[in-house]
Amino acid sequence: MPRVASPAAAHIGALISAERLRIGMTQDQLAAASGIDSSNIRAYENGRAMPSIQTLVRLAEGLGGSPAELLVGLRSDMFPVALEDRRRRAG
Fold first, then answer.
1. Which in 7, 19, 26, 72 has the greatest CB count within 10 A?
2. Which residues, including other chains, have CB under 8 Å from residue 53's CB and lie 6 or more apart?
3. Buried b (16+ CB within 10 A) or exposed e, 43-53
């Protein structure tokens, strides 16, 4: 699991946590429902890691929803820009 601290990871994590709490599910229950280790659930919810697309789908299924619900409000400027991309934009 890539450790990517970014506004995007924090935003997605907050949405995962909010939905989990809204339906009255614990992190351990979400882990069991999604097949994802509870330590990873904690890392996603705390914004310390960015879930892959496959993991996002599994989380959404575990929460009984759609992956799109876990991306609401996400913007491209929330992602870190790689140094190489910055150079291309400047040149």
1. 19
2. 67
3. bbbebbbbbee
What integer pLDDT is reported at residue 85 of this predicted model? Answer: 54
The DSSP line for 6-63 is: SHHHHHHHHHHHHHHHHTT--HHHHHHHHT--HHHHHHHHTTSSPPPHHHHHHHHHHH
In tens, the pLDDT along 7-47 reads 999 999 999 999 999 999 999 999 999 999 999 999 999 99
Check pLDDT > 90 for residue 84. Answer: no
Q: What are the tokens at 4?
A: 């990517």
Q: What does pTM read for this prediction?
A: 0.84
Q: Superfamily assignment of 7-90 in CATH?
A: lambda repressor-like DNA-binding domains (1.10.260.40)
Reading the block at residue 10, the tokens are: 């924090």
Q: Which two tokens stand for residue 60?
A: 């959404």
